[in-house]
Amino acid sequence: MNTRKIYTAIVMTMVTCFIILSSESLQAVDSMNFQNVKFEEVDSGMPYNVSEVPVADKDSLKNIRIAIVAAHGFEEIEGTYPIRHMLKRGATVDVITPDWIKDRVMAVQFLKPSIWIPVDKQISQAKPEDYDAIIIPGGAWNPIIMRTDGAILDFIRKAFGMNKLIASVCHGPQVLINAGIVNGRNVTGVGDIRIDLKNAGGNVIEDRPVVLDRNLLTSRDPNDMAEFSKAIEEYLSKKSGFENLHNR
Q1: Shortest CA distance to 124 belongs to which of 84, 69, 173?
Q2: What's CA 189's distance to the chain center, in Å?
Q3: Distance CA 51, CA 244 (A)
Q4: Helices 225-240 and 76-87 sit at what angle, rounded to 10 degrees?
Q5: From 22, 51, 78, 154, which residue has the greatest number of CB atoms within 10 Å?
Q6: pLDDT tens readout for residues 89-145
Q7: Where are any strands of DSSP class E within 65-111?
Q8: Cα 127-129-133 angle, rounded to 5 deg
Q9: Per-residue pLDDT for 169 more than 80?
Q10: What angle do CA 143, 148, 149 make, to 5 degrees?
Q11: In what order do the strands lie in the sheet with 121-122?
């Protein structure tokens, strides 16, 4: 038998073994009894009971423009709470998403899809100079999507360089890490990303609901949404009289 025939015989034997093993593996998988996940079985996490802050001045954010930048999978309360808070005080709020997300963006409660929110603009249509503040919620999937989106990161970097307020909560500061704006700043975030913030050069503050370092404002988790939203309002209302472009 020549070399070519020997090689062919070896290859055919290997293919036969592969087919037999693959068949056995598939039978083993079938015997594991995989089941489809039912919607009602998905974990929606702990319920958050954060009361809304009473409105002291319905015009405290008049002429202020705010961008909520989010992708599918943002934690519902981390988007809806500040949206309601800012709108009730006279702000204009735009929901901005990556270009591939059209018309509506999906919120979650931990792992469970919860509501759709209408989208105002895709990121390629948004200009950082049009806004006074950028709010970045966290959530299960949202930061993973946004921290690898070059257009989102560029928008945040440009707004940061223009001294716009950049505010983020919970897992949202992961996006700030990829935008390169954490180094040398006092920051906070949810417990499991604090080591990431430290590795990115941030000075992590663990015992405060809100940490403000110049134009960078971060917060720990959904339980801090009232303090987070009040801090944004206070920052913008104080600036609005003398620094806000729309009031000049």
Answers
A1: 69
A2: 12
A3: 29
A4: 40
A5: 78
A6: 999 999 999 999 999 999 999 999 999 999 999 999 999 999 999 999 999 899 999
A7: 65-69, 74-75, 92-97, 104-109
A8: 100
A9: yes
A10: 100
A11: 121-122, 92-97, 65-69, 133-136, 165-169, 216-219, 210-213
Taking the C-alpha atoms of residue 226 and residue 207, their distance in angstroms, rounded to an integer, is 16
Q: How many CB atoms lie within 10 A of CB 3?
A: 7
Scan for tokens 């943002």, then name that residue. 74
State both tokens at 100. 């591939």
The confidence score (pLDDT) of residue 195 equals 97
- Residue 56 φ then ψ, to 5°: -90, -35
At 205, which helix (H) or strand (E)?
Answer: none
Q: Given this model, what pLDDT does residue 24 score?
A: 58
pTM (two decimals):
0.84
Burial class (CB within 10 angstroms; exposed 0-12, middle 13-18, buried 19+) of 104: middle
What's the pLDDT at 83?
98
The catalytic site residues sit at 171
